[in-house]
Amino acid sequence: MSVEPGWYVDPADPETRRYWDGEGWLGAPIPVDATPPDGPPPPEPPPVPVTPAALDAPATAPGWPPHTGSGPAPGHGTQPGHDTPSPHGPQPGPGPGWSPQGAPPGWSPQAGPPGWTPQGVPPGWPGRPPEPRPHGLRLAGYGRRFAARLIDFTVVFALNALVNGWFVWRLIDEMLPYWREVFRRAFAGDTSTDNLPQIGEQAGLLQVVILLIATALWLAYEVPAMASHGQTFGKRVMRIRAVPLAADQPLGFARAFGRWTTMGLPTLLWYCAGLGLVLQLVDALSPLFDHPLRQALHDKRVQTVVVEVPASTASAPSNDDQPSGDTP
Protein backbone atom coordinates (compact mmCIF):
# COMPACT_ATOMS: atom_id res chain seq x y z
CA MET A 1 0.00 0.00 0.00
CA SER A 2 1.36 3.39 -0.97
CA VAL A 3 0.28 6.92 -0.17
CA GLU A 4 -2.31 8.23 -2.59
CA PRO A 5 -1.25 11.00 -5.00
CA GLY A 6 -1.51 14.52 -3.64
CA TRP A 7 0.37 17.54 -2.30
CA TYR A 8 2.35 16.78 0.88
CA VAL A 9 4.94 18.48 3.06
CA ASP A 10 8.38 17.65 1.62
CA PRO A 11 10.25 15.40 4.13
CA ALA A 12 13.55 16.83 2.91
CA ASP A 13 12.41 20.44 3.51
CA PRO A 14 9.41 20.93 5.86
CA GLU A 15 9.15 24.55 4.68
CA THR A 16 7.98 23.39 1.25
CA ARG A 17 5.29 21.18 -0.24
CA ARG A 18 5.61 18.84 -3.25
CA TYR A 19 3.33 16.59 -5.29
CA TRP A 20 3.49 12.82 -4.61
CA ASP A 21 2.24 10.72 -7.56
CA GLY A 22 2.07 7.47 -5.59
CA GLU A 23 5.65 6.42 -6.43
CA GLY A 24 7.79 9.54 -6.18
CA TRP A 25 7.91 13.32 -5.99
CA LEU A 26 7.00 15.37 -9.08
CA GLY A 27 7.64 18.97 -9.98
CA ALA A 28 9.23 21.74 -8.00
CA PRO A 29 8.39 22.50 -4.35
CA ILE A 30 6.09 25.33 -3.36
CA PRO A 31 6.00 27.20 -0.04
CA VAL A 32 4.29 25.16 2.67
CA ASP A 33 1.79 27.93 3.39
CA ALA A 34 0.81 28.34 -0.28
CA THR A 35 -2.45 26.86 -1.53
CA PRO A 36 -1.52 23.91 -3.77
CA PRO A 37 -3.15 23.68 -7.21
CA ASP A 38 -5.72 21.08 -8.07
CA GLY A 39 -4.07 17.97 -9.42
CA PRO A 40 -0.40 17.46 -10.30
CA PRO A 41 1.92 20.30 -11.30
CA PRO A 42 2.22 21.18 -15.01
CA PRO A 43 4.85 19.29 -17.02
CA GLU A 44 8.33 20.71 -16.69
CA PRO A 45 9.94 22.14 -19.83
CA PRO A 46 12.88 20.11 -21.09
CA PRO A 47 16.29 21.63 -20.39
CA VAL A 48 17.75 23.77 -23.16
CA PRO A 49 20.55 21.87 -24.88
CA VAL A 50 23.89 23.60 -24.77
CA THR A 51 26.13 23.39 -27.84
CA PRO A 52 29.88 23.93 -27.85
CA ALA A 53 29.30 27.15 -29.78
CA ALA A 54 27.09 28.45 -27.00
CA LEU A 55 29.75 27.63 -24.44
CA ASP A 56 32.35 29.65 -26.38
CA ALA A 57 30.03 32.60 -26.99
CA PRO A 58 30.48 35.59 -24.66
CA ALA A 59 27.64 36.10 -22.20
CA THR A 60 25.47 39.20 -22.51
CA ALA A 61 23.49 40.81 -19.75
CA PRO A 62 19.68 40.86 -20.14
CA GLY A 63 18.49 43.72 -22.34
CA TRP A 64 21.93 44.47 -23.83
CA PRO A 65 22.36 44.28 -27.59
CA PRO A 66 24.64 41.55 -28.81
CA HIS A 67 28.22 42.72 -29.11
CA THR A 68 30.49 41.84 -32.00
CA GLY A 69 34.06 42.66 -32.66
CA SER A 70 37.18 42.50 -30.59
CA GLY A 71 36.51 45.53 -28.38
CA PRO A 72 34.84 45.40 -25.01
CA ALA A 73 31.06 45.24 -24.75
CA PRO A 74 29.06 48.39 -24.07
CA GLY A 75 29.44 49.56 -20.51
CA HIS A 76 32.69 47.62 -20.07
CA GLY A 77 35.22 49.53 -22.16
CA THR A 78 37.18 52.62 -21.22
CA GLN A 79 39.19 53.03 -24.38
CA PRO A 80 38.53 55.97 -26.73
CA GLY A 81 36.32 55.22 -29.70
CA HIS A 82 34.01 52.84 -27.80
CA ASP A 83 30.79 53.28 -25.89
CA THR A 84 30.71 55.44 -22.83
CA PRO A 85 31.95 53.50 -19.83
CA SER A 86 29.59 52.67 -16.98
CA PRO A 87 29.71 55.24 -14.17
CA HIS A 88 30.23 52.34 -11.78
CA GLY A 89 33.24 50.98 -13.58
CA PRO A 90 33.62 47.69 -15.46
CA GLN A 91 30.79 45.19 -14.86
CA PRO A 92 32.09 41.73 -15.72
CA GLY A 93 29.39 39.30 -16.85
CA PRO A 94 29.13 35.59 -15.96
CA GLY A 95 31.58 33.07 -17.25
CA PRO A 96 31.32 31.21 -20.55
CA GLY A 97 28.34 28.92 -20.86
CA TRP A 98 26.12 30.66 -18.32
CA SER A 99 22.71 31.88 -19.40
CA PRO A 100 21.74 35.58 -19.32
CA GLN A 101 19.88 34.89 -16.07
CA GLY A 102 23.06 33.66 -14.41
CA ALA A 103 22.10 29.98 -14.37
CA PRO A 104 24.39 27.13 -15.49
CA PRO A 105 23.76 25.42 -18.85
CA GLY A 106 20.72 23.11 -18.78
CA TRP A 107 19.42 24.55 -15.52
CA SER A 108 15.62 24.65 -15.35
CA PRO A 109 13.92 26.83 -12.72
CA GLN A 110 11.42 24.03 -12.04
CA ALA A 111 13.50 20.91 -12.52
CA GLY A 112 16.20 21.44 -9.90
CA PRO A 113 19.89 20.73 -10.49
CA PRO A 114 20.67 18.78 -13.69
CA GLY A 115 20.59 15.03 -13.17
CA TRP A 116 18.31 14.93 -10.14
CA THR A 117 15.38 12.51 -10.29
CA PRO A 118 11.71 13.49 -9.91
CA GLN A 119 11.84 12.00 -6.41
CA GLY A 120 14.45 14.56 -5.41
CA VAL A 121 17.23 11.98 -5.03
CA PRO A 122 20.61 12.41 -6.76
CA PRO A 123 21.55 9.72 -9.30
CA GLY A 124 23.25 6.79 -7.61
CA TRP A 125 22.06 7.79 -4.13
CA PRO A 126 22.62 4.67 -1.98
CA GLY A 127 19.70 5.19 0.42
CA ARG A 128 15.95 5.01 -0.01
CA PRO A 129 13.80 8.01 -0.95
CA PRO A 130 12.53 10.03 2.01
CA GLU A 131 9.80 8.18 3.87
CA PRO A 132 6.28 9.51 3.40
CA ARG A 133 4.67 11.70 6.03
CA PRO A 134 0.91 11.11 5.95
CA HIS A 135 -0.84 14.42 6.62
CA GLY A 136 2.56 15.99 7.40
CA LEU A 137 3.18 13.74 10.45
CA ARG A 138 6.07 11.34 11.04
CA LEU A 139 5.35 7.63 11.01
CA ALA A 140 5.44 6.10 14.48
CA GLY A 141 8.43 3.87 15.16
CA TYR A 142 7.98 0.22 16.12
CA GLY A 143 9.43 0.83 19.59
CA ARG A 144 6.71 3.34 20.44
CA ARG A 145 3.98 1.12 19.06
CA PHE A 146 5.23 -1.90 20.99
CA ALA A 147 5.45 0.06 24.24
CA ALA A 148 1.92 1.43 23.74
CA ARG A 149 0.59 -2.08 23.16
CA LEU A 150 2.28 -3.36 26.35
CA ILE A 151 0.63 -0.56 28.34
CA ASP A 152 -2.77 -1.41 26.85
CA PHE A 153 -2.33 -5.13 27.60
CA THR A 154 -1.48 -4.27 31.20
CA VAL A 155 -4.69 -2.25 31.53
CA VAL A 156 -6.80 -5.01 29.93
CA PHE A 157 -5.14 -7.65 32.15
CA ALA A 158 -6.03 -5.59 35.25
CA LEU A 159 -9.65 -5.39 34.07
CA ASN A 160 -9.68 -9.16 33.57
CA ALA A 161 -8.33 -9.71 37.07
CA LEU A 162 -11.35 -7.85 38.43
CA VAL A 163 -14.07 -9.24 36.15
CA ASN A 164 -12.69 -12.68 35.29
CA GLY A 165 -11.06 -13.48 38.61
CA TRP A 166 -13.88 -15.65 39.97
CA PHE A 167 -14.14 -17.69 36.73
CA VAL A 168 -10.37 -18.24 36.67
CA TRP A 169 -10.45 -19.44 40.29
CA ARG A 170 -13.23 -21.92 39.43
CA LEU A 171 -11.25 -23.20 36.43
CA ILE A 172 -8.16 -23.76 38.58
CA ASP A 173 -10.29 -25.61 41.16
CA GLU A 174 -11.68 -27.90 38.43
CA MET A 175 -8.26 -28.75 36.94
CA LEU A 176 -6.04 -28.71 40.04
CA PRO A 177 -6.52 -32.38 41.14
CA TYR A 178 -5.55 -33.65 37.68
CA TRP A 179 -2.43 -31.51 37.29
CA ARG A 180 -1.36 -32.10 40.91
CA GLU A 181 -1.30 -35.86 40.31
CA VAL A 182 0.49 -35.44 36.95
CA PHE A 183 3.30 -33.41 38.54
CA ARG A 184 3.55 -35.82 41.51
CA ARG A 185 4.08 -38.75 39.19
CA ALA A 186 6.54 -36.80 37.03
CA PHE A 187 8.74 -35.96 40.02
CA ALA A 188 8.55 -39.60 41.14
CA GLY A 189 9.60 -40.87 37.70
CA ASP A 190 6.25 -42.50 37.08
CA THR A 191 5.16 -42.07 33.44
CA SER A 192 1.92 -44.01 33.67
CA THR A 193 -1.40 -42.32 32.95
CA ASP A 194 -3.65 -44.90 34.60
CA ASN A 195 -6.17 -43.85 37.22
CA LEU A 196 -5.49 -40.12 36.85
CA PRO A 197 -8.16 -37.86 38.38
CA GLN A 198 -10.68 -36.58 35.87
CA ILE A 199 -10.80 -32.90 34.97
CA GLY A 200 -14.05 -31.31 36.12
CA GLU A 201 -16.94 -31.29 33.71
CA GLN A 202 -17.25 -27.52 33.84
CA ALA A 203 -13.59 -26.84 32.91
CA GLY A 204 -14.27 -26.58 29.18
CA LEU A 205 -17.22 -24.27 29.66
CA LEU A 206 -15.24 -22.08 32.05
CA GLN A 207 -12.44 -21.68 29.49
CA VAL A 208 -14.92 -20.48 26.87
CA VAL A 209 -16.54 -18.04 29.31
CA ILE A 210 -13.16 -16.63 30.36
CA LEU A 211 -12.10 -16.05 26.74
CA LEU A 212 -15.44 -14.44 25.87
CA ILE A 213 -15.19 -12.04 28.80
CA ALA A 214 -11.55 -11.22 28.02
CA THR A 215 -12.42 -10.47 24.38
CA ALA A 216 -15.40 -8.31 25.36
CA LEU A 217 -13.30 -6.31 27.84
CA TRP A 218 -10.64 -5.68 25.21
CA LEU A 219 -13.26 -4.54 22.70
CA ALA A 220 -14.90 -2.19 25.23
CA TYR A 221 -11.53 -0.74 26.20
CA GLU A 222 -10.11 -0.14 22.72
CA VAL A 223 -12.80 0.39 20.10
CA PRO A 224 -14.61 3.47 21.53
CA ALA A 225 -11.34 5.26 22.32
CA MET A 226 -9.89 4.54 18.87
CA ALA A 227 -13.12 5.56 17.14
CA SER A 228 -13.21 9.02 18.70
CA HIS A 229 -9.54 9.96 19.14
CA GLY A 230 -7.44 7.30 17.38
CA GLN A 231 -5.68 6.71 20.72
CA THR A 232 -5.92 4.25 23.57
CA PHE A 233 -4.38 5.03 26.95
CA GLY A 234 -1.11 3.43 25.85
CA LYS A 235 -1.01 5.44 22.62
CA ARG A 236 -1.63 8.67 24.53
CA VAL A 237 1.29 7.90 26.84
CA MET A 238 3.58 7.18 23.87
CA ARG A 239 2.22 10.18 21.86
CA ILE A 240 1.10 8.24 18.81
CA ARG A 241 -2.29 7.81 17.14
CA ALA A 242 -3.93 6.02 14.26
CA VAL A 243 -5.37 8.05 11.38
CA PRO A 244 -7.01 7.05 8.09
CA LEU A 245 -4.86 7.30 5.00
CA ALA A 246 -7.64 9.15 3.20
CA ALA A 247 -7.82 12.12 5.59
CA ASP A 248 -6.58 13.32 8.98
CA GLN A 249 -9.84 12.71 10.85
CA PRO A 250 -11.26 10.39 13.55
CA LEU A 251 -11.42 6.71 12.63
CA GLY A 252 -15.12 6.29 13.39
CA PHE A 253 -16.68 3.19 14.92
CA ALA A 254 -16.76 1.04 11.76
CA ARG A 255 -13.06 1.53 10.99
CA ALA A 256 -12.02 1.20 14.65
CA PHE A 257 -14.03 -2.03 15.00
CA GLY A 258 -12.64 -3.47 11.77
CA ARG A 259 -9.13 -2.60 12.89
CA TRP A 260 -9.65 -4.29 16.27
CA THR A 261 -11.21 -7.51 14.95
CA THR A 262 -8.01 -8.45 13.11
CA MET A 263 -6.02 -8.55 16.35
CA GLY A 264 -8.75 -8.95 19.00
CA LEU A 265 -11.03 -11.71 17.75
CA PRO A 266 -8.22 -14.31 17.55
CA THR A 267 -8.32 -14.24 21.38
CA LEU A 268 -11.26 -16.63 21.08
CA LEU A 269 -8.94 -19.11 19.33
CA TRP A 270 -6.57 -19.39 22.28
CA TYR A 271 -8.76 -22.36 23.19
CA CYS A 272 -7.56 -24.10 19.98
CA ALA A 273 -4.04 -25.01 21.09
CA GLY A 274 -2.99 -21.35 21.19
CA LEU A 275 -3.76 -20.71 17.51
CA GLY A 276 -5.15 -17.27 18.28
CA LEU A 277 -1.95 -16.26 20.05
CA VAL A 278 0.09 -17.20 16.97
CA LEU A 279 -2.14 -15.07 14.72
CA GLN A 280 -1.83 -12.11 17.08
CA LEU A 281 1.95 -12.49 17.18
CA VAL A 282 2.13 -12.39 13.37
CA ASP A 283 -0.03 -9.27 13.36
CA ALA A 284 2.11 -7.60 16.03
CA LEU A 285 5.35 -8.22 14.10
CA SER A 286 4.00 -7.28 10.65
CA PRO A 287 4.95 -3.54 10.84
CA LEU A 288 8.61 -4.56 10.92
CA PHE A 289 8.33 -5.93 7.38
CA ASP A 290 6.02 -3.36 5.78
CA HIS A 291 7.48 -0.46 3.77
CA PRO A 292 7.15 2.43 3.45
CA LEU A 293 4.10 2.98 5.71
CA ARG A 294 4.93 0.44 8.51
CA GLN A 295 1.36 -0.85 8.53
CA ALA A 296 0.32 -3.81 10.63
CA LEU A 297 -2.17 -6.28 9.19
CA HIS A 298 -5.00 -4.58 11.10
CA ASP A 299 -3.90 -1.23 9.57
CA LYS A 300 -3.97 -2.63 6.05
CA ARG A 301 -7.47 -4.02 6.53
CA VAL A 302 -9.04 -0.60 7.13
CA GLN A 303 -6.42 1.64 5.46
CA THR A 304 -5.00 3.32 8.55
CA VAL A 305 -1.50 4.35 9.55
CA VAL A 306 0.05 5.12 12.94
CA VAL A 307 1.80 8.49 13.23
CA GLU A 308 3.58 10.44 15.94
CA VAL A 309 1.70 13.23 17.70
CA PRO A 310 3.81 16.41 18.09
CA ALA A 311 4.47 17.27 21.73
CA SER A 312 2.71 20.62 21.37
CA THR A 313 -0.51 18.89 20.28
CA ALA A 314 -0.29 15.65 22.27
CA SER A 315 -3.01 16.69 24.70
CA ALA A 316 -5.31 18.24 22.11
CA PRO A 317 -4.70 16.99 18.57
CA SER A 318 -5.47 19.58 15.93
CA ASN A 319 -4.61 20.48 12.37
CA ASP A 320 -3.50 24.05 13.06
CA ASP A 321 0.15 23.29 12.35
CA GLN A 322 -0.63 22.08 8.83
CA PRO A 323 -2.33 24.26 6.19
CA SER A 324 -5.16 22.94 4.09
CA GLY A 325 -4.36 20.62 1.23
CA ASP A 326 -2.76 17.76 3.17
CA THR A 327 -5.56 15.36 2.30
CA PRO A 328 -4.25 12.99 -0.36
TrEMBL record:
Membrane topology: Multi-pass membrane protein
Listed Low complexity bias regions: 51-62
One Gene Ontology cellular component: plasma membrane
Residue numbers spanned by region Disordered: 1-133
Record's compositionally biased regions (Pro residues): 37-50, 87-129
DUF2510 domain sequence ranges: 5-37
Ranges where the RDD domain occurs: 140-300
TM spans (from-to): 146-169, 203-221, 268-289
Keyword presence, Cell division: no
Record key words, sorted: Cell membrane, Membrane, Transmembrane, Transmembrane helix
Subcellular location per the Swiss-Prot or TrEMBL entry: Cell membrane
Keyword set includes Secreted: no
Listed name of the protein: RDD family protein
Organism from which the protein derives: Micromonospora orduensis
